[in-house]
């Protein structure tokens, strides 16, 4: 099966980094664990891009939940494009 490489829109990467920094302010270890979970989840999406459900909140995207973070992404022929990252408690 073809592996799709993950790419990030600039805004989505900034949102992700902000969430990790917020977690790290409380616990570096928790932030590192979150990053590991995100990497594992993105690795799964590379071979199973339709693993996560279609988003009912954002048209044309799928929504992957990793702990309390929501990753909204689009599937292209050769890549997965992460378009937004939100905390589950945020108003989306």
If strands are numbered along the chain, what order do they take across the biggest sheet? 1-4-3-2
Through-space gap between termini: 33 Å
What multimeric state do the chains show?
A: single chain
What structural class do the secondary elements suggest?
A: alpha+beta
CATH architecture: 2-Layer Sandwich
Describe the structure.
This protein is α+β, with helices and mostly antiparallel strands. It has one domain (5-87): RelE-like (YaeB-like fold, 2-Layer Sandwich), CATH 3.30.2310.20. 40% of the residues lie in helices and 27% in strands. The chain has two helices and four strands; from the N terminus they run E-H-H-E-E-E. It has helices spanning 10-26, 28-47, and strands at residues 5-8, 62-66, 69-75, 79-87. A four-stranded mixed sheet has the order 1-4-3-2. Strand 3 (69-75) and strand 4 form a beta hairpin. The chain starts with a strand and ends in a 5-residue tail after the last strand. 20% of the residues are buried.
Task: Give a topology summary.
Layout: E1 5-8, H1 10-26, H2 28-47, E2 62-66, E3 69-75, E4 79-87
Parallel strand pairs: 1-4
Antiparallel strand pairs: 2-3, 3-4
Keywords: Toxin-antitoxin system
InterPro entries: RelE/ParE_toxin, RelE/ParE_toxin_dom_sf, TA_system_RelE-like_toxin
Protein name: Type II toxin-antitoxin system RelE/ParE family toxin
Keyword list:
single chain, 92 residues, alpha+beta, YaeB-like fold, TA_system_RelE-like_toxin, Type II toxin-antitoxin system RelE/ParE family toxin
In short:
The protein is α+β, with helices and mostly antiparallel strands and 92 residues long.
């Amino acid at each position: 099966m073809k592996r799709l490489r993950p790419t990030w829109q600039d805004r989505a990467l900034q949102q992700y980094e902000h969430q990790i920094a917020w977690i790290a302010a409380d616990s570096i270890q928790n932030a590192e664990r979150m990053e590991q979970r995100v990497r594992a989840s993105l690795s799964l999406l590379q071979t199973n891009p339709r693993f996560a459900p279609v988003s009912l909140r954002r048209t044309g995207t799928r929504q992957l939940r990793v702990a309390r973070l929501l990753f909204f992404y689009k599937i292209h022929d050769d890549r997965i494009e992460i378009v937004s990252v939100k905390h589950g408690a945020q108003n989306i």
